Amino acid sequence: MDVGADLREELWATAEALADIAAGVSLPLFRAPELRAANKAARGFDPVTQADREAEAAMRAHLARARPRDGILGEELGVEPGESGLTWVLDPIDGTRAFLSGATTWGTLIAVNAGQAPLMGLIDQPYVGERFMGGLGRAAMRRGGVERPLRTRPCAALDEAILYSTFPEIGTPEERAGFEAVRDRARLTRYGFDCYGYALIALGQVDLVIEAGLLAYDVQAPQAVIEAAGGVFTDWRGRPAHGGGRVLAAGDPRLHAAALDLLARVPEAV
């Protein structure tokens, strides 16, 4: 899709408005004693709070006014088809477990796509006041009213890399073995950072994020931000990952190739 200057400006203004709206809902509930969570999972624990649902509802209400012809895909309220060819991909609180436990690694994810890979994406962490933006001519982080460019850092070798993942017990036993093959070669591995780990790749602080079992609303905003900053974002076979599944994000294409060589040995999911 051809996105001219006026549309780019409108899309970014809308995305930032959506992030502000979500923050207005989520921040009063963050670390609040009245916050409660329900469990969406039949097995295990997959929490959802009133902040998740109310933030997404508020973002959708704004889109109904500002961009009524666009489609929406959201974690909590599903799919709403559109007519414009553009779809907003929303995750009101990526990292609900972190949100529920008072940690600051959660964020609001907002992306726009035209049917394939995301055109643009935004990762917002309103409690610490950091907003990461990528795509349609932007690659920047804003904090305290000051913007700085986003750029991944060079790191060619696994033994020099910092690796992040949300869960140490990643995916299936086969997926876990593939992840551990990379982990065992990395310089440092950290867990539990949700979308914030992807933002740190774009900021040039982290080199790799490896995850499995993700969905489109988990990945499209991080993908846009990382690619705009010079990084690589694929599945474990080097294919497009905008639909979710197994994700390999790297700041340096050489490091991506090294990790991919190990992860590509993991059998395809049945």
Which structural class do the helices and strands define?
Answer: alpha+beta
Coarse morphology? globular
Q: Taking strands numbered 1, 2, ... along the chain, how are they ordered across the largest sheet?
A: 4-3-5-6-7-8-9-10
- Strand percentage lies at 25-35%
Q: Sheet bearing the most strands, described? A: 8 strands, mixed
The name CATH uses for the topology of the largest domain is: Fructose-1,6-Bisphosphatase, Chain A, domain 1
Round the mean pLDDT to the nearest integer and report it. 95
Order of helices and strands: HEEHEEEHEEEEEEHEHEHEEH
The CATH superfamily of the largest domain is known as Fructose-1,6-Bisphosphatase, subunit A, domain 1
What level of helicity do the residues show?
A: 25-40%
Cα separation of the termini: 34 Å
Kindly give the count of domains. 2
Q: Please report the first level of CATH classification, the CATH class of the largest domain.
A: Alpha Beta
Radius of gyration, in Å, reads 18 Å
Keywords: Amino-acid biosynthesis, Histidine biosynthesis, Hydrolase, Magnesium, Metal-binding
InterPro entries: His_9_proposed (IPR011809), Inositol_monoP_metal-BS (IPR020583), Inositol_monoP_superfamily (IPR051090), Inositol_monophosphatase-like (IPR000760)
Family: Belongs to the inositol monophosphatase superfamily.
Protein name: Histidinol-phosphatase
